[in-house]
Amino acid sequence: MNTFRPDIIDTERLTLLPLRVEHADEMAAVLSDPDLHTFIGGAPESVQALRARYARWAVGSPDPAVSWCNWAIRLRTAGCLAGTVQATVTADDCGAVAEIAWVVGTPWQRQGIATEAARGLVAWLRERPVHTVIAHIHPDHQASAAVAAAAGLTRTDQWSDGELRWQLTTLHAF
Which of 33, 57, 71, 82 could be a cystine partner for 16, CB 3.0 to 4.6 Å? Predict the structure, then answer.
């Protein structure tokens, strides 16, 4: 499998920056609203906990067949971070499969930021040998379902840990 490394991704209003440990200070505030965890579980993490997690992510997956690609969402005009997007890339018999996720801080929701970031991520993945893009979304999380649909994914009838699988099959099959 190819090793995937996050590049800078520019969209109309956003820059998706490869996530660094240094982003933890700002991201702790961005992700501090407990309501963000309604569908994804857990609770807001401290700056120290985010630094530790981001440091683990920067090292990469211990499994050489898995690539962890994580980005901070930066609003260019405001010059601030507003959330994250990620892709975990694995391989199957046909090539690379990417499982994606996104989270946008409460103050920046309902502005199309998650949709724009997810579309940018999916476009980036489609430029690589990724044949399938997947997201797992809680069935009651209508906002995330709308983001997935806008990014080109279609809901399936497959369930995983209480979430529905959304999927986009690209033309790539290697």
Answer: 71
